[in-house]
Amino acid sequence: MELLRQKVLKEGIVLGQGVLKVDSFLNHQMDPFLMREVGREFTRRFSGEEITKVLTIESSGIAPGIMTALELEVPLIFARKQKSLTLTEDIYVEKVYSFTKKETNEITVSKKFIAPGERVLIVDDFLANGEAAFGLARIVEQAGGSVVGIGIVIEKAFQPGNRLLQEAGYRVESLVRIASLEDGRISFVEEEEGLLS
Amino acid sequence: MELLRQKVLKEGIVLGQGVLKVDSFLNHQMDPFLMREVGREFTRRFSGEEITKVLTIESSGIAPGIMTALELEVPLIFARKQKSLTLTEDIYVEKVYSFTKKETNEITVSKKFIAPGERVLIVDDFLANGEAAFGLARIVEQAGGSVVGIGIVIEKAFQPGNRLLQEAGYRVESLVRIASLEDGRISFVEEEEGLLS
């Protein structure tokens, strides 16, 4: 997605250790037109699939998620993230480890919002090791629903998330795929493959 | 806003102690069409105001916030909420007490996203005691910006937030105003005033 690629190049800030900061348009300040285009692009890529709900995780997944849900004309659910939890019978809970923050969170979704047979598109802002996406997928499957696919705004393709998700049988669509952040330079997978000048 | 009022009546669940649960369309599952209408209604109510940014707070403010920002054609910023924080020079921090959760959070916004002179519309999902709205307003003012107004999706008018904000000089626009949740029944301010049958 060229618009997104340009935005990443222009406004993305490479911090040490493989961290890309995009807080001017995705993680803190958000560009609503870009978010709408992201929603349209996911809808285009998953056209032909019957999708009944979009599932994302707070907080940065909500804006791309709601725009995708608007285009697909289905509800959005956002999973909540918390450090620890009093369990109740009404919620699905999965543990998700964040390599960036070096902590385990529990992510939760109310049982009443995913019915058996539901066909769910998972949307998230970043894909690195795939922990959050796997956690969301396990919640959908616990509920007796199926994961139609996983839509990612920015993939760090030098980390194993995409490969692991595909090996587990999930369809992954990433709008931009970053091959490397080495030496403070952002390069994309397509460039490395020689598809772009 | 009639659409929203109907949704609150149909799907809102009154819990004890003045708590209204609207997690089927606003706080956990979200209705994207309703969120778009909320964004359009805030834009209509604040038309004529020059607005340069929308500011909200994670997580439930993000969906109404991004739809408002889309209609207004300006960026959205969402403040982050955390229990405690390593201070840095790059962020504005305000303490916000949550009466519902009985805890104090620190809310933060990066300094680089609010410039002096910025004209900011604050949007949030709920207004009760006004703590979050005051915290967001103080951040805008610390930055040398001005608060054009405060747009609230659901106001609990039996709590003092609206009055306190207006006394402090802020314009508040609430899309629905709940007069009472007593005996498990949702009644609206307009009903009590005899404006509706």
TrEMBL record, chains A, B:
Please state where this protein is localized: Cytoplasm
Please name the pathway: Purine metabolism; XMP biosynthesis via salvage pathway; XMP from xanthine: step 1/1
Which residues does xanthine bind?
A: 20, 27, 156
GO terms for MF? xanthine phosphoribosyltransferase activity
Q: What is its EC number?
A: 2.4.2.22
Q: Which reaction does it catalyse?
A: XMP + diphosphate = xanthine + 5-phospho-alpha-D-ribose 1-diphosphate
CDD domains from the xrefs?
PRTases_typeI (cd06223)
GO CC aspect terms: cytoplasm
Keywords annotated in UniProt: Cytoplasm, Glycosyltransferase, Purine salvage, Transferase
One Pfam entry for this protein is Pribosyltran
Q: Which family does it belong to?
A: Belongs to the purine/pyrimidine phosphoribosyltransferase family. Xpt subfamily.
Mind telling me what this protein is named?
Xanthine phosphoribosyltransferase
Species for this entry? Paenibacillus etheri
Q: What is the lineage of its organism?
A: Bacteria, Bacillati, Bacillota, Bacilli, Bacillales
Gene expressing this chain = xpt
